[in-house]
Please model this.
Amino acid sequence: MNCALFRTLLCILLGAGPAQSIQAAEQGKAVPKRGGTFRVSFPSDLRSLDPAIAYDNVSVPLCKMQFRGLLNFDDGVNLVPDQAKDWSISPDGRTYTFHLRPGVRFGHGRPVEAADYVFTFERMLDAKLASPGQTFFLGIRGAAEFVAGKATHVIGLKAPDPETFIVELVEPQFTFRYVLAMTFAGVVPREVVQREGANFQYHLVGTGPYQLAQWKRGVRWQLVRNPHYTGADGNVDGIDIMIGADSTTATMMLERGEIDLVLASPADAMRFQRDPARRDWLLPVDTASMDYLFMNTEMKPFDDIRVRQAVRHAVNKERLVKLTGGFSTVARGIVPPALSWTNNLLPLNEYDPPKARALLQEAGFPDGLKTELSYIVTTPVFARLAEAVQQDLREAGIDAELKPLAGTTFIVKASSRRQIPFGIWGWFQDYPDPSNFLDVLFNGERITETDCHNAAFYNNPAVNRLFHAAATNMDAQVRTKLLKEAEAHILQDAPGVPLVCEQYPVLLNPRVRGNLGHPVWLLRYESVWLDP
Amino acid sequence: MWTRLLNRLFWSVVTLLTTAVLVFLLINVVPGDVAHVIAGPKASPEVLQQIRERYHLDEPVWKRLGYYLAQLAHGDLGHSFVTEEPVAQAILRRLPVTAALAATAVVMWMLIAMPLGVLTAKHRGSWFDRGVLVAATVSLSLPSFWLARMLQYWFSYKLGWFPVAGVRGFTSLLLPATTLAILFIGYYARLIHSNMVEVLDSPYVRAARAKGAAETTVLFKHALPNAVIPVITILGLDVAVLLGGVLFTENVFALPGLGKLAVESVFNLDVPMIMGAVLVSATAVVTVNLVVDLLYRWVDPRIKDAY
Amino acid sequence: MPLLEIKNLKVEFVAGQSGLRAVDDVSLTIEAGETLCVVGESGCGKSVTALSIAKLLPSPPARYVGGEIRLNGTDVLQMNSRELQQIRGGVVSYVFQEPGASLNPVIRVGRQIKEALQLHRPEAATDDEVVRLLQLVGIPAPETRAQDYPHQLSGGMQQRVMLAMALAPQPKLLVADEPTTALDVTIQAQILELLRDLKQRLGMSILLITLNLGLIGDIADRVAVMYAGQIIELAPARSLLKRPMHPYTRALVNSVPKLAGGAQRLTTIRGSVPRLDAMPSGCRFAPRCPIARPECSTGAPVLAEAEAKHHVRCPYWNEQPALRPQSLEIPA
Model:
């Protein structure tokens, strides 16, 4: 973690003035310069930066620049208060009380009130809006009735005075605190949203350091500094986002100085890496994500644990990392390293083809077996992983025919019962809690006929009980123990084999400074400054 | 004359309708759940179900076709599944770029192909003629996407003469238009060449020379107008090919035009947008051919009276 | 000075390395106001000669290998392109065989005539002058006709338009290359009548090329008969018709069917015109000639004056049987 920036954040929290002078005085380091326009390029347009809608890796960091809420993450995965002065949870774990920090204003000047938070959270539950983040708020008391149209307000959301906001949950839910840091909980001004309706996405107003100046659909976004923002973030005057250039074109533009940041293709990234003069243009950003092999436990032959374990031993994870151009790390467990804990105790690579063959023989496949490996063809990493895994499997006697599918086709099939026996998928965290990986992907009680995230359709009652207990337990240490136990079970049962954790190869113009990478937000634009 | 026009209009509408129905059915045959596109891959089943209901995604294809055609009859192209923007608005926004790109390309290649065709016909068999023939054959064989990238690499990236991508005034159109022009120039230069060779042998060209007309007048005022007549028909047909070429050119050069919109919509399974893009393209092709047909009758006076 | 003087013209066509000589040492003159007819079978070189007058032959295949063509004293074969443009239309005008094909199909006829005016008589390049010219050649409703496209006119009208176009720049010499061959008989007569009329009114020289002997009597002052690239007889029209000398000319005259005198067998000339690459040595007609003798194939005969102004390329012309009395009608 960057100490200078930590101090900056501290100053924000204490309401102190600009922290640059303190930093400079204390450490003699480079002082962030204010000014300039940060230019970025994305291949396709964003769906929307409306905090109720933005939900992908590209949109969320941009949304975070405009919309802040009660809590946030520090430079790492720890929750800190943001626009809440302080907060507390009742002993029974059901009631959260927040006192809002005074002096926080929206981009159009009005100070934030608790009623705005009530409005924001109710908006997330609005059936007509159909926000993809709706599920995170369903645990609030009165939410179900509100969604069903049986109530006009959510009784669990209260604003007893303009500076106090209270949320009551139906059941204790440890992970609810993380929801409060997500962009879904970014506070919006109620009168503006009511006035603009569907056009709010063109006239976004929030409490973050930047606000939307212009959105030319399919062409360009322009964000400028929010004059009412009082934090120390927001060094650049504005952010200019160009839409439409693919990664090859964008990299060319970067090299010509036309843009400052590009999410490069692995080929381009490697080119920069090999060039000693330009190696420092490359910034591999760790993502809290995991790419894994799932095996449908309801379909033959993967209903047999020995077959699944054979697959686990057939795969050479270190080789996979090499094949993705080195821009990933081995996924030892299901929970990625950014969230720490058990990972370093797990073996790095369980590659053992003789053992795999022995297991297959035991399972009744002495001559190996034939199966199909499905994956999303338009994601290059998945395609590369699929080919590599296929080669590994062949050594163990498993003949996996590759089945490339288009993105949406794959998603539908993988999340439907008994469609795909064997596939490659990835999961990107919503918030940095292990349950976001374990519970979401391997909880048997969450299985549905369609739209199921548990693609292995894994259902182990013991594990399910552990998840249930962990969900409602408010003691962090107890939870950790429960979840670790669950992970151990899952790794043993092998409904899935975690493969790699991806890194995004980001290329930056050397004039870009500041701490850009972040384990939760991926890219934290608001901490960027430009030199010159 | 009016009956002919009405007749052509009628068949144009039939063509467009057939295209719409065929494409709609084709898109809906592709497996893939649009609800996931709209809501994102991590959405919950409840949200997905809401979306399915709203867009009738669970109903049979022919019923959805019915809804769509009914909508179309009211002049409504629907709303994008991905952005919820009205399709007509999105297309209208993108159309100028594509139209400008296509028009520039056509003007470029015709302005170069015509003199080349005329001069190589006049100096048939010379080194110039043979050189142009070789160049034309090469240009016809170049893979389009490769050419686009190559031009971008050498002229924008290495030399910096043009912006690499995006729209920044008219110069942004020049390199993409050049890509398209190069693909067609060879063909048109040879087409005009062979037509000119035929025309230059004709008695009226000899008669024009016998009148004492200067050679340039003979070539460009007497011969070329005759040689170019069949080219106009080909041009009409080539509009469809051109629109295809526009697709990848816009992608490589990141131009916010119809082609790019179409490609993105297909990847996103954004059905209303795909339909809108297809219909607009089909309309463009049909209209251009209609215009060419009418133009043809105006340009070649013999045709007018033959019908 | 004669208006046109062709002296020893030799024209070849390039075929690979060698050249095929289409016109071999042709000389003729045309005085101002005179009408000369050139007669011969297809391939005898008459069109090549005619086109050479304004150097209209396409120069890669055609090659002028000898002789001069003096138009008003200046050698056309030495002119540069600007000078050629001036004489084409300005001094010598052409009317071609297929009038429909010789008019530009996409330009209105009035404009095509106007172009001829603009090139050589710009001060007269007006719609009125176009109308006047159309009237001159006998086209009814000339104002409307001027707006027509060539395909809207009949063959005869098209030829009249061509004439108007040829006359517009007021040339001294009109070269008409088989102007009526492609038209039907009644129209032929009309066009011929028109030519005669114009000749009288305008005092133009005319070089008329034709296959049709019948026309000669109507319009020609003098006639040149060509065979295999050479002139084999050159005489005033009356003289030629009354007393054709060269065996070929006689055969031609004989082959014209006669209207009066009962049904007869059509006479033809046996054999065929020699190919350019297989030209006989000596007299070129010898292989087909009824009075040929061995010497004819060894020595090439020259064009010699046999009687007053009547030249023939045959030393033995007088040794032919006497002609039948009424060979061709000669108008009074």
